[in-house]
Structures
1.
Amino acid sequence: MSLPSSAHPARATALHVAFDAAPLAGALADPRLLAAFGFGADAPAAHADPRYLHVALPAFGRAPLECWRVDGEVTHGRDDGIAWSTGGGLQFGALALADDGDIEAAADAAYARLHDWLAGSDHPHPLRIWNYLDAITEGKGDAERYRRFCVGRARGIGRELAPGELPAATAIGHPARSGRFQLYWLSAREPGTPLENPRQVQAWRYPRQYGPQPPGFARALLPASPAMPLLLSGTAAVVGHASQHGDSLDAQLDEVLANLGSLIGTARAMRPGLPAQPGAGSRLKVYVRDADALPRVDALLQSRLPEVPRIVLHGHVCRRELRVEIDGTHG
Ligand code: 3EB
């Protein structure tokens, strides 16, 4: 006979994101570790444990490990080239496909795999997706690789995701050739609420001038469980649909912080308990186009947001004039 469910109250789904200086082996020894990410040349390039993912973007200084922990035992495996882990109401998944120059085909194939994976999963709701590709702003006009990526992504996912189902996302370019398109995600049993930024046009409604296929992502996602942080998409100095301050890194960073503040404000209307500002409970990843600007961006963030743990990476934002982008978690 099974006990009434009230005797075993299910723990609320929670994700604990930490930036840990400890070595990988220690992180992987934790049965509640859902995923660990190493950045740059100093991080291990690979590990047999499918919970470890190497992101090749160069780091400013020695980046800590990004660790995702959940409240529950984690199981993991590899199936058909998809590395996965599941526990505490959440699932992590990752795959990488060869990119021989046709990023539209690589994104189409990867997103078709993701679509099929989610359709067969007991965690079918993607909350957050990361895309890392080579030479993101190479090519002219509609042949630009980011625009081709958007076309392949939309075709591969198989149907137009309704605005109410869009995940939060990041799409960043490798400054050096990796030869791969890397895709990873966080999905859940329960759908979350996609959020938009009142300062920005919804990306899925970008006008034609930015390409034939508007990018399919929400500016942030608020998961159903109040124990989950707000998930912030890659956020750049875009107001309306236009890039701002193409001539000023400092002004772009201020605009990014204004956009993040606006997203946090939007989320607080639904969840007033979220902190009003980025703080000690936030985690930010910062992508900087020009390697020369890495120290400047790090110093500006140290002065603007001294309590917020950050990882600063050398990565290309998907419009040439955008010098910096930030994603992360809050709450
Ligand atoms: C922007 O605001 C910047 O295509 O998945 C940010 C986050 C950006 C995600 C994506 C693109 C994506 O349009 C670019």
2.
Amino acid sequence: MSIAWNPETQEWHLGNGLTSWVLGVLPNGWIGIHHAGAPLAAGPSYAHLGPHDFRGFDNRVGEPVALALPVPGLGDFRVPALVVEAADGSQVVEPRYVAHRILAGKPALPGLLPATYAEDEREADTLEIDLADGPTGLVATLSLSIFRDWPVVARSMRLKNFGAARVVVRTAMSATLDLPDDDWRLVTFSGAWARERMPVDRPVVPGRQGVGSLRGGSGNEHNPSLVLRRPATTEAAGECWGAVLAWSGNFLAEAEVGHFGTTRLRLGLHPEQFAWPLEPGASFTTPEALLAWSGGGLSALSASLHEVLGRRMARGPWRDRPRPVLLNNWEGTYFDFDHDRLVAMAAEARATGAELFVLDDGWFGRRDSDDRSLGDWVVDRRKLPQGIDGLARAVRAQGLLFGLWIEPEMVSPDSDLFRAHPDWAIGVPGRRRTESRQQLVLDFANPAVVDHVAGAIGDVIASAPIDYVKWDWNRFITEPYSPTLPPDRQGEFFYRYTIGMYELYERLTTRFPDVLFESCASGGARFDAGILAWAPQAWTSDDTDAVERLRIQWGSSFAYPLSSMGAHVSAVPNHQTGRVAPLDFRAAVAMFGAFGYELDPTAMREADRAAVRRQVAFYTERRDLFQYGRFTRLRSPFEGDGNEAAWMVSSADASRAVVAHYRVLQHPWPHRDRLAVRGLDPAARYAVTCWTSFEAPMPTFERGGDELMAVGLGIEPPDPMPEGREAGADGHRLVRGDFTFRLFDLRRA
Ligand code: GLA
């Protein structure tokens, strides 16, 4: 049991040897956080780390107390975790300790809230603390689960109205965390379409700083995840926190530095455009937030998040299965395809070793462009006379799996669905609806809409042997409103939309348990911890340019495992940037993820097809490492002039690794350069084979794990040498030119 309660000191210690959280009941009945972070010995009291001589706030307004459930109006003027409006309109509640429970395992969250789980009771322990507010009868139950194997605590909050009058929840954070100083840098993951999750790293300053979404989805502008790191923390060393929210809707993720130099983290549903009335007897549960701590740098922090999200948030048979190498037709054909063309592409894909053929947008209604037919999930027989079934069978006959694109939450104004049910599209009656990509969003807060779509999409999936579904979501929500909710409950709209979307996922994954779902939203706009509960992988970005992908995948890797990151090789000139990077370079970048291609293989030169065959063979031979190995960031494409990047994957037993180094542009007369790697066995010897193209490796050489970690692999030999000449003991052929890479395959000798 990793949770202990000391009735004498009124303290709980959640500790697993990797992290400790010490909470205590303060003399006024509030819950303080005495310590969170580094592992501390179980047993002793840590109350001295909390507030000294605590007497409540009566005469001590603004005291820097670390609180588990900060509320407004009682002297703590920092951002609150809970704001509740009582029947009299006041917003002062004071939840005080009444009871707690320590449970083996981790109870599920109610309804369809995505959450981590324990496969057996030994994997996690849970502390539930009940705090009651007398006048309103509101009880807030804080839930904290600590995993046995990871320095990660999962938090959520349940609110129940035991009073006689209705209250309105205005703010309900999944987690706040008070840290005793402000010596931190905040890293958020921000961007836009085609450049998602770029790390933004800045010192925390007095006041609030953070990110959020009011788009109705987690979005590509900001991600529901953040990192706090000490200024000296690096990838390899130092203290840091990571926080992710398991929610695919509106969110807030921020840090506030108070006037005593404390830092409060806050993560949860965005309080704007949110209000949740609680009638007597009713309850409300927040999404789950995960808080991970690392004393060993950022890559170790990510490794914990990857494990917990990849292994205990993701569910279903595909969670641990090798993910198939896919070929998606989108950039190869856009809307211009027919049965024969797709079958020819699939045949060529099969010949290169791909395992899954995915038909993207354009197969339904009269969808010749993106201005129509969303909602009409009936195959377009002009393009596919044999239907999806005929196509899927033809593809599967070649030995490939078959996958299909859908965008179930959308409707085109030019569609039979919209003509039949205009009221199903989100909008405020009497106001115009804003279109985006010539489409509207269906009202998933309306159960009848979810029912209809579950039937329509379910029929499609049931109609053919479909192994994979790419679930897209190509615009954000405007004019939020649902006619199915009464006026005083419209503040529930965004939450209910997201739950409606989860409901559809739940129904489809229950009905089709073997189908692999991949989340997509104009690329990477719905890439969050919550969606992983149904879709274990997500399309990382519509930007498939390899140089851009170095940055996008680097940023995405802070929270999300490689198994969750769809990464494809596309044609050149790249459709997003116009860049022409060599095929092997594009593949060497995309391999660090759920790998595939997004092009027309029938349009490739034979030499390129041969290259693809070699790439797929290289990847599949090491697939377990690329998808489920421990990922370590080595050199950031955001540092220096951004011309280089390096990262690696290694097996848990340190017997195998693949280390990648990328250089975008070549400069003359390079400096000697060695790349120190991590995660190896210092006492072992490794056979090292370097690939600078997938054609043939360099001669294998042997090095000690100690040397590889302390000194590193040779990236540049000490002297420039003529093209083609073998360079010294490492056997490096000199690599010159732009867009070069080295993949080092390491095996314990
Ligand atoms: C979005 C996706 C793309 C593709 C198109 C189809 O942009 O991100 O991968 O599926 O939609 O319209």
